[in-house]
Amino acid sequence: MNIHEFQAKELLKRYNIPVPDYFVIRDLDALKDIDLDEAVVKIQVHAGGRGKAGGVKFAKSKAEIKDVTKRLLGMKIVNNQTGPQGVVANAVILSKPVDIHKEFYLGAIIDRDQKRMSLIASTEGGMDIEEVAQKHPEKILVLPIGMGGKLRMYQIVAFNKFMGFKADVAKQATKLVQNLAKAFYELDASILEINPLVLTPSNHLVALDAKFAIDDNALFRHPGILEMRDPDQYSKAENAAFENDLSYVSLEGNIGCMVNGAGLAMATMDIIQHEGGKPANFLDVGGSATKERIAFGFEMILSDPNVKGILVNIFGGIVSCRMIAEGIIHVVKERKIKIPVVVRLEGTHVKEGEKLLEDSGLEIIAAVDLLDAAKKIVSQVQEVI
Ligand code: GDP
Ligand code: MN
Hints:
The chain has 385 residues and is α+β, with helices and mostly antiparallel strands. Helix content is 35%, strand content 24%.
């Protein structure tokens, strides 16, 4: 789950990481309570690259603050981080401007290649870190974060040297980087990123921007962070999935996928792609798929107007394929589904399930295995479009 910059900054403050003062504004009326003569106005959306998209503006007077806030509230940005539908800013922050001497990058991630938490630091802040990694890998330092979110002293020394932090700045940086690693670990983050971390002309380190994502599976341990979830930043289907405890991610293609198990769902998407099709979504209805969840899964898939066909791929390990077949027949009838539906069932009671589908009189296309299923749905969808 992602949260907004201002919420990420609240978390950073709890860990004694300095951030500029800011006010969160959701409507123009709120401006009258704020005494700032200049501000950096920043849209609050779950995407980076706001500066480039025109969502970060300097305002140099009260009148300008009002004018800029008016323009940025409700602004929509579309970039490679938002998906084609874009995201809308229902809030902005007015941030007290900070003078910048130099910008740095500091972040922590779950490093899947290395199977550990990694700290990432760079002397090139404020820009796209992926680009820096590609063009100037020597300007990036990666350090393993130890158990409990701890960094070793020799790592911190190496970090300060790499970043060019000396004397008092090194002292600040030491605390800051330790606190960042601790916050990352304790809050079960999947990403915690400060870009830019700035050094002011008076030699203070300040986190100018903050990005935080938490592992969904750890949310139960952090009710306060769960409360920060902003449904406006997700699609209707993503919200419905969240409320019903299903994993759903909308994608750009036109083949709706309903699968049980995340691994199988990924394999299904891969094989569709391999056969020349494009998945419209990732949907894991869970290991214990029920009739209701199947019905609900169909609703979500059908809420996407781009969907031209549906592939159901269920492995009946715990669940019975008979029950799944009943669920599918029920929705296809109730919803009068006209687009092609290909079903691949395997596992418990598979024969009974397949027979139910066959006898239903509905145009449900049976597949013998996953490859067959992918081939069938791709050719069906190609015929329709
Ligand atoms: P992003 O584009 O979504 O990453 O938004 P940021 O909050 O990182 O802002 C983009 C850029 O605007 C930063 O990299 C800074 O260069 C600049 N910026 C943001 N806030 C301030 C500020 O208070 N003072 C100055 N001088 N520049 C700022
Ligand atoms: Mn930034």
